[in-house]
Amino acid sequence: MPRPSRTQDAVDQLLDAIIDGTLTAGEQLPPEGQLAVEFSVSRLTMREAVRLLQAQGVIVQVPGSRHRIAPVAAWTGMDAVVRHARSAGQRERSSIELLEVRMMIETGAARLAAERRTDEDLEVLEDALRRMIVHHEAADVEAFVSADLEFHDAIIRAAENRILIAAILPLTTMMEETRGETSAVPEIRMHALTEHRRVLDAIRAGVGADARDAMAHHMQQTHDDLVSLVHD
């Protein structure tokens, strides 16, 4: 994995300081020179980091005064919101919120995939499910999660909508983490295999409404498993 640029590293450090409360929402941002020293970067790098966080609604420019840190509810950048959601103290709530978003996005994606899928798409889905079965039997959670993500990615791509692909990309890392949390439970993996087979069969049949309903059932099962077997 390529190393983040100095500017991105400064963005992440500054954002983490806001998320963990070292820098407080609603208060003025310390001077850029002070932040540059604290985070061991140049003033130019810190100025660019502040500018990037302004673009995400995390930092607000106040005319005639120092910048102010916005409350989380006002943040508009997906990267910042997802980083906050992945932080300590937010994981349980964010995992439920992620499922709600997935329900809205992936049910529609499954419907489109059923109507637009190719034979190659079906082969990719079948292969991903086959590997999920193998990895479940071997209790290889990491490999199971990887195949699970590939299955869902194949559905998104089979839907043939570029905006859909771009919209779901920022959620990928967060999805990988929550999948690992649930897939560590053997009973949940068994449920997932049943649900994925149902979704694949519906997409293969080419009936959009059935694929949408199968995915909705899968998302609901995942929600119920998360609440009863992970968060309980």
Q: Explain this structure to me?
A:
This is Transcriptional regulator, GntR family. It holds the Pfam family FCD. This protein is elongated. The protein has a two-stranded antiparallel ribbon with strand order 1-2. It has 232 residues and is mostly helical. It has 2 domains: 6-77, Orthogonal Bundle (Arc Repressor Mutant, subunit A), CATH 1.10.10; 89-230, GntR ligand-binding domain-like (Four Helix Bundle (Hemerythrin (Met), subunit A)), CATH 1.20.120. It is built from 11 helices and 2 strands, in the order αααββαααααααα. The mean pLDDT is 90. α1 (6-19) packs across α3 (43-55), α6 runs antiparallel to α7 and α10 packs antiparallel against α11.
